[in-house]
Every structure is written in C-alpha cells, then in structure tokens.
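Researcher: Re-running this chain for the archive, since the previous output was lost when a drive failed. Same request as before.
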Amino acid sequence: MSLRSAVMTDGPDPVHPGGPDLERPGGPAAEGAPEGLPAGTPDSGQDDGPGSGRGPVARWWRPVLGVLLAVGAVVAVVVFRQSVLGWFATIASTDPRWALAAVAVQLLSMQCLVWQQQLLLRSGGGVAPQGSLTATVYGGNAIAVGLPLAGSAASVAYGFRRMRDLGNNAVLVSWTLAVSGVCSTVALAAVVAVSSAATGSTVGAVVASLASVAAVVPVLTLLAVTRSAEAKNLVVKLLMTVLAPLSRWFRVLRPAVVGPAVDDALTSLGSIRPGARNAVAAGLLALANWVLDALCLLFAVHAVGAELSLRGAALAFAAGALVSSTRLTPGGIGVVEAAVASALVAAGLPAAQAVPAVVVYRFISLWLLAAIGALCLVLAPRPVHPAEG
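Model: Regenerated structure tokens:
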C-alpha cells in the first residue's frame, strides 16, 4: 500500500507552496561563535554540559534505543529462525511470471493517477505533458514515503510547484490537486465499502459509505458557491466579518485585502468547468488506481504459490488501506505489513505463505515505486516558465 493517493489529499498553499527556506545545519550560521560570547552558548556550537541546553538524556537515548532495537531484532530472528528461514525460502521460490504481473498492474495503477491529473489540468485549459507529469507523480510519492510526519504535505507542495513550473496558474493547480484527492478518497471508500460488504461486515460498509459522503459534500458545497453570485457574496462577507477582529494584528486579514482575494479565488474556481464526461473519467481513473493496487496484492499471493479468493484479497487490501490512511509511519511501514498479513491469515492463508506474499507486495507497491520516484527527483529536469504578471 503506497501513499501515492494520500499525496494529493492535503491542500497546497497557493501563496507559499514550498514553505520558507530554512537555514541548514552546518551552514554559515553554525560555523563558530561571534566574538564576545561565552563558551557553551548555543551560538558557539560547543557542548559544555548543562549550560548547552542539551541534557544528558538527549545524548544517550538514541544510541540506547538503537541498541535495544538491534538486540530485539536479533532475538526475534534467533527465536523464530525456522519461520524466518521458511519465509526466505518461499520468497526465493517466487514465480517470476506472477511477480512481473504484479509489477505491471502496480505501474498501471500509478499511470492511472497520472492520466487523471493530466485530464483535470487539460479540462481547465492547463498544460500537462505526460512525461513531466509522470515524473512529478512518482517524485511526489517518493517524498511522501521518505519523509516522516510531513511527507504528505511536502509531497503536495512538490506537486504544486512542479505543475506551476509547467506554466499552469495557481488556482488551476490547487483545483486539480484538490479534486484528485477527493476522487481518490471517495474511490478508496467505495472499494472498502464493497470489500466490507463482500466479507459480511455491515459496519465497515456503512462507515466507508459515510466517509464517501463526508468527502463529497464539501466539494459540492464549494461548487455551488462558485456558481452562484449570491452565495459567493455571502461567503465573502462572512469571511470579512469573521477575520475583521484579527486585522489589528495581521494587516493581510484586513477586509480590504481579504474580500477581493476571496472573490477572485472563487471566481477563478467557478470558471473551471471540466464537464460531466471529464468528471466521470476522473472518478473512474481514481477507482482503477485502487483496484489495480488490490490486484497487485492478489498477484503477489499467487507469486509465492498460495491460493486466495477474491473475497480474501478484498479483505486484506481493505485492512491495509485503512491502516495506511492513519499515516502512523512513513508509507505505513510496519503497520501495513502487519495488518495485511493478519488479514491474509484470517482469510485462510498459513503464515508461512502470508508473510512472504506481503513482502513481495510491499516490495513492489512501496519500495519499487519509491526507488523510481527517487530517480525522478534526481534526473527529472525542472521546467522554467516566464513569471506571471
């Protein structure tokens, strides 16, 4: 379960999408201390004990934690060595035909996301060359996987800047990323709902359906506001009234600034009309993105010589998708593997086959895509366009 869909769920900042440039450690500000400062101050770069601001716990907890994790891993391997050896043997005997099929459907799954964003950009009159957009999607996925906590937001900021560099205006790019994220969320909820219903979980189906509604309602509300002059004026006046008390401290929140800015943004959004055909196509591509990811899991199970029903595959995929959406770890590393393996065992697979199947699936859907994305980040040229007036 990669985070490629979650990449587009956080809204970008049209004003400062990349965030401020932070001073890097070890740069000019970190080299030496200004004259006249006593030794041991933060500016000196020295650590003279208690006065340095770094307590004794901060110096030793990381090495101790690393040692404990290493010892725990060694103990686990020793205790469960027979199971571990069996898993490696199963992985070594993976059927290359099924493995290649899993790789093919996973790459096609990612391409559906590329085609979806290309469709949305072009429907708004934007520029969307397939090569550049493919590199952007893969690169954003690598950022989402590689950065803890802020990976998803950083990925959206990267995608925003790359699409702006192609010559698209900020409003169109923001709209594209927002619609892509909503389509992905609704499609995932639909897949989870169908999977839950197929496995007899009524509660899961209801919750997933409610999640779909919760994702669609705000979009429909915003669409109605942008298409109605009365509703747009009401929203502008409401925001001006709410933010007026804060204008004493923040000049950018003055009614004279907020009113025209919000009105222009809503007017620009209202001018983007993708049409019913493009809207349906975007939804279907988002659905295909998740269905092909589920097929990758099913093919990975077959690659290790196991047999699994479509219902079992749906159950395992839904479990992994739900856990991955919590974003407890970058890329869901650790938690997704545990959830999918447990679901496969619950579906009837022995652990000796469930664990290798999850390893193959995650290698393809997470690490392979992250490696491709890393190459895109390094090799993809950054297009330059004239600054907008």
